[in-house]
Task: structure prediction
Amino acid sequence: MEAVAKYMDTPGMNYTRSFLKFVNAAIGFTFIFYALSKIIDDPSGFFTLDSLSTFSLPLVLSIVALPILFALAIFAAYEKLLGISLYRVNSNVSKRRVALKIILLTRLNLARIHSSIRVFSTGLHQNLDQAQVFEFIASQHKNK
Result:
């Protein structure tokens, strides 16, 4: 209800917003004081291996998932970048060498990858040979 009252602009809504904030804060503090009183009454019931695993498992899984999500973002960005850049390269050019050069210049940096996507999507309008592609790549990354 507080979220809805936040965006409503009718007369008297300020009183409703402040009352709902107070109610939410009071409920939250009640839960915190109740949990603290239970911990103080019986600390051995709280500090168990089961409660440690219940508390720490989501934290560990979140930390483990971060590199996986980063790798997925890098993979998707490189797929887009290499798709754009290699499409414009002549078929007789070594596309692997061009792809390797692009990967080495961007160095797994998402900002550089997205910058290169913008450069390749606007900068190349014709098919190029390998030397011209390398020259174009180097000239765009010298400015960075």
Observations:
- The helical segments are 2-7, 13-41, 43-46, 49-87, 95-106, 110-123, 130-142.
- Residues 49-87 form the longest helix (39 residues).
- The chain has two domains: 1-47, 66-144.
- The chain has seven helices and no strands.
